C-alpha cells in the first residue's frame, strides 16, 4: 500500500516556540491531506483539510492562526503549531488521499507526539 | 451530517476466542465505511473497507465486517484472536458523494487479548 511519512515522531518544545510537522506521501501524489489531533484514549478529531495549492479548510473551533497548514506540493503538507502552549500537547496525525476520483482510501502517517513544556 | 457510534469502549477477550467489535453509523446518504487499527503511538492502518457490492468484506489479519444497511451497522469480527491483535480499533464513515472523502471516526474500541 501507499506510504505516508510523518516527521518528527516525537518532539518536545518550550512554551512560546513554534513547531513544524511534516507529512509526505512517498510513492503517490496526494491532492488532499488531512490533519487530525488525538487526545489520550480518544478518537481522532479532524483539524483541517488541505488541498494542494489552495488554503486549508479548518474545522469549527480550530484556530487557523495557531495551526498553520501549508500544502505546497502534491507530496508534502506541513502543520506548524505557533506559539505552542502546554494545552497543545497531543498526538497529531496526518493522512493523505491519492489523486483521482476512485481513490477513496486515506493513508495515515505514524503520528507526532508533541509535548510542550 | 454523519456520525459513528462504537458501542464498546473496551473489549477483553481470551486468546483464540472469537470477537465482534460493534459499529453503528447514521447518515441520510450513501456512505463508505472503514475499520482502522491503531497500535500504541502509531498512526492508523486500514483493516478493511466497504464501498459497494458484497456486504461481507474481508480484510487483513483475518478480520471481516458485514455491512447491514437496514440496521446501519458495520460490525467487525474475527473468529480467533491472537495476542498481537491487542490494539485500538476505529470505525469510520465518509459520505460517498464528498469529493474530499473526509472521514468521521467513532471513539474507538480497545481490544485486549488475554493469554
Q: Which helices and strands appear, and what pairs or packs with what?
A:
The complex is a heterodimer of chains A (117) and B (115).
Chain A: E1 4-7, E2 10-13, E3 19-25, E4 30-38, E5 44-51, E6 57-58, E7 67-73, E8 76-81, E9 90-98, E10 106-108, E11 112-116
Chain B: E1 3-5, E2 10-14, E3 19-21, E4 24-26, E5 31-38, E6 44-50, E7 56-58, E8 64-68, E9 73-78, E10 87-95, E11 104-105, E12 109-114
Parallel strand pairs in B: 2-12
Antiparallel strand pairs in B: 1-4, 3-9, 5-6, 5-10, 7-8, 8-9, 10-11, 10-12
Approximately how much helix is present in the residues of chain B? under 10%
Spatial separation of the terminal alpha carbons of chain B: 41 Å
Q: What is the rounded Rg of chain A?
A: 13 Å
Structural class of chain A: mainly beta
**Overall number of strands of chain A:** 11
**Percent of sequence in beta strands of chain B:** over 45%
Averaging pLDDT over every residue of chain B, what do you get? 91
Alpha-carbon distance between the termini of chain A?
37 Å
Looking at the structure, what is the overall shape of chain A? globular
How would you sum up the major sheet of chain A? 7 strands, mixed
The largest chain-to-chain contact, stated as pair and per-chain residue counts, equals: A-B, 26 and 23 residues
- Separate helix tally of chain B: 0
- On the 0 to 100 scale, the average pLDDT of chain A is 90
Low-confidence stretches of chain B: none
Structural class of chain B: mainly beta
Please state the CA-atom Rg of chain B, rounded to the nearest Å: 14 Å
State the oligomer: heterodimer
Residue runs with pLDDT of under 50 for 5 or more positions of chain A: none
Task: Give the topology string of chain B: H per helix, E per strand.
Answer: EEEEEEEEEEEE
Amino acid at each position: 500500500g501507499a506510504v505516508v511519512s510523518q516527521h518528527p515522531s516525537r518532539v518536545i518544545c518550550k512554551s512560546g516556540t513554534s513547531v513544524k510537522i511534516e507529512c509526505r506521501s512517498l510513492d503517490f501524489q496526494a491532492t488532499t491531506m488531512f490533519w487530525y489531533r488525538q487526545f489520550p484514549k480518544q478518537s481522532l478529531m479532524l483539524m483541517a483539510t488541505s488541498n494542494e495549492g489552495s488554503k486549508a479548510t479548518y474545522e469549527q473551533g480550530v484556530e487557523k492562526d495557531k495551526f498553520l497548514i501549508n500544502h505546497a506540493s502534491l507530496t508534502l503538507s506541513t502543520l506548524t503549531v505557533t506559539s505552542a502552549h502546554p494545552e497543545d500537547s497531543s498526538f497529531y496525525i496526518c493522512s493523505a488521499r491519492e489523486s483521482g476520483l476512485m481513490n477513496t482510501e486515506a493513508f495515515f502517517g505514524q503520528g507526532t507526539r508533541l509535548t510542550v513544556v | 451530517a454523519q456520525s459513528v457510534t462504537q458501542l464498546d469502549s473496551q473489549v477483553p477477550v481470551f486468546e483464540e476466542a472469537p470477537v465482534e467489535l460493534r459499529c453503528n453509523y447514521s447518515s441520510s446518504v450513501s456512505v463508505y465505511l472503514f475499520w482502522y487499527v491503531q497500535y500504541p503511538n502509531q498512526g492508523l492502518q486500514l483493516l478493511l473497507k466497504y464501498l459497494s457490492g458484497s456486504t461481507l468484506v474481508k480484510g487483513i489479519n483475518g478480520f471481516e465486517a458485514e455491512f447491514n444497511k437496514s440496521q446501519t451497522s458495520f460490525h467487525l469480527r474475527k473468529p480467533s484472536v491472537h495476542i498481537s491483535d491487542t490494539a485500538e480499533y476505529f470505525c469510520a464513515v465518509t459520505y460517498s458523494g464528498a469529493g474530499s472523502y473526509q472521514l468521521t471516526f467513532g471513539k474507538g474500541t480497545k481490544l485486549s487479548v488475554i493469554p
